[in-house]
Amino acid sequence: MTTSESPWASGDGDIVVPPAPAAAPPQPAHQHLGGLVTFATRPATRTAPPPLPRTDPNKRLLMWFGGGAAGVLLLGIVVMLALVLTGDVNPLQSHAQNGPDRRPPLAKLCPPPTSYPEPSYDAPPVPAGPRTVDEKAAISYKAYGEPWQPWRDSWSAGTLRVQYRIGQDIITERYSEGTYHASILSGSVPATANDGTQLDLKCTGRQVAADARVSYYPQPNTMEMIRDEAAVLGGRPAWVSKFRLHFDASRRGLTAKDELVAIAMIDVGRPEAAVLYISIPGTHKQFDYVVDEVLDSVRYAGR
Fold it and tell me: What is the CATH number of the domain that holds 195?
């Protein structure tokens, strides 16, 4: 009840009493109306209003806080409605944005660049001779005869899970843990988010090379860096890492103590980047020339 509705809010506090009834007219003497007594009219008695109940200070404080909270809530609703109506915020997006991160590992490690000029390199003609064509990775490169053999497995290792599906290899030795290989392999790896095609070649290229060093080779090992730079392979932008690793796994029966490695990360205009991996164990250095020859022979094979 508001203050204006209080019964103590109007007038000066007097209680209004209706006037007494008028005196009966004179009657003849022989008539008598029993029980009728007439009193003189007297002023109404002024009665003071009862005192207002005292308000508990704690309740008063709670009322203040309650009113303030209601005001803040109302202000928040007004602001939210204004943002929604102007298109500055979508309250349904917050849950989606805070959901699980489903980006591939490379996209998490290497966010796309803020600016990325479209490559405008002229693609050189495809060299004559036998070639390995990796349609899924959208690249092709030089193929070799004996002792190189076609790669017939789908192989994936490391935390980035680069999938190598095609290429050539040589079994260079057998040891306690299996076979050791020289290899020319290609595959692809998801490198962008939401079907984007822009990727940070430097970051992704170095991440793939670091993953290979840790996951593909005996530990510990040391790296002798030979080449780590941006390049153009077959008319497509790329990042090339070329290095020699030194290690000792003789306790496991491995004869090789070093290996020449090249890894090329190639932007083929797709969410998946092409990866070319070439490795020549130190026991077969007569094939070291293959590394640069294969890199120079890369061509774009997409449509």
Answer: 3.40.1000.10
Location of structure tokens 């996209």: 107
- One-character DSSP codes across 218-275: -SSEEEEEEEEEEEEETTEEEEEEEEEEEE--GGGT----EEEEEEEEE--SSSEEEE
Global pTM value:
0.67
Q: Write out the two tokens for 185.
A: 């392999």
**Measured distance CA(46)–CA(52) in Å, rounded:** 18
pLDDT at 65 over 70: no
**pLDDT score at 105:** 84
The domain tally of the chain equals 1
169 three-state secondary structure: strand
Q: Report pLDDT for 1.
A: 41
Q: Report how far Cα 177 is from the mean position of its chain's Cα atoms.
A: 40
163 belongs to a structural domain = yes
- Between CA 41 and CA 38 the distance in angstroms is 9
Q: Is the pLDDT of residue 56 over 70?
A: no
Measured distance CA(181)–CA(178) in Å, rounded: 10
- Token pair belonging to 81: 């409605």
Residue at 46 is within a domain: no
Residue 148 has pLDDT above 70, yes or no: yes
Whether residue 261 lies inside any domain: the answer is: yes
Phi-psi region of 167 (alpha: psi -120 to 50; beta: other; left: phi over 0): left
Partnered with residue 221 across adjacent β-strands are: 247
User: How confident is the prediction for the chain on average, in pLDDT?
Assistant: 78
Q: Which of 16-30, 97-111, 195-209, 288-302 has the lowest mean pLDDT?
A: 16-30
Q: Is residue 208 part of a domain?
A: yes
Provide the residue range defining the domain that includes 233: 109-117+129-300
Q: Which residues pair with 134 in a beta bridge?
A: 139
